[in-house]
């Protein structure tokens, strides 16, 4: 486990923007996703208090949290181009999009691209989704069912990002909607991160309702780190901040590698069932937050994630491998590391269940 002692006292300047939640509440099918309290025996086994799982398996009728960032990112991008406010009525935005004929371009390992395609269909735009060559057909078909065109690149996720960018800049009405940032492409990924804040607002309210206490530790799956950026920004903005732990596949630990080296470090990734986290480069705008505000970073194997997934099934909770990775991370913490993270039998822990269960031979990250 990587541990950053200084993160405990680091302060974020994040301010909750009520406009984001208000926007999400205007979308069809909005509703708080559940915060599930795991059986008390699990906490007793681990020597901690309440363990809560944020279940993002049904968010706006999609199987992951990604639509929170994609919806706000897409609307902010389009309204910026149109010269109107994001708070404009959705009917008005759709009328203008129908005239201009925008096309969204993005790269994905699965759920992100599906969410962008879903928003393109909702707003009346086109969508071209670039995917790595290892993506299985069932995943690509789910994206196509949202009305998007899927383009397979001869490489990994990082190459798909480059190809999507290259294609978008050649089109006068092409809009690149990515959840990862690099020099010169920072504003839209930040809007995406802002979109994820709705999840944190919900967790705060639900945690208080369930336990009457603030959370002590939140465990977040990490791909490029945009969700983790939102988590750190929110939970490190308080006078009594929560501890933040990041978890990655052992075959794609770009954040842990970067934290250990003290600088952003791209890596080559291997295959993993946790494909939504199979990313080789941390988002540039996320990096300062993660470098300063992540208390601990840990990796888990596919087998450990699968074992945790089975444990959740035994609790009648259906989650995908990326979600199960958070429980696997919690079980992998040693007694000494629990002391380092100030965990005890009164601690409230939140696991981010970022995706629902996948069907047979279905790879949706």
From TrEMBL:
SUPFAM superfamilies, sorted: Tryptophan synthase beta subunit-like PLP-dependent enzymes
In this protein, which residues make up the domain named Tryptophan synthase beta chain-like PALP?
28-352
Q: Which domain of life is it from?
A: Eukaryota
Q: What is this protein called?
A: Tryptophan synthase beta chain-like PALP domain-containing protein
Q: Which organism is it from?
A: Letharia lupina
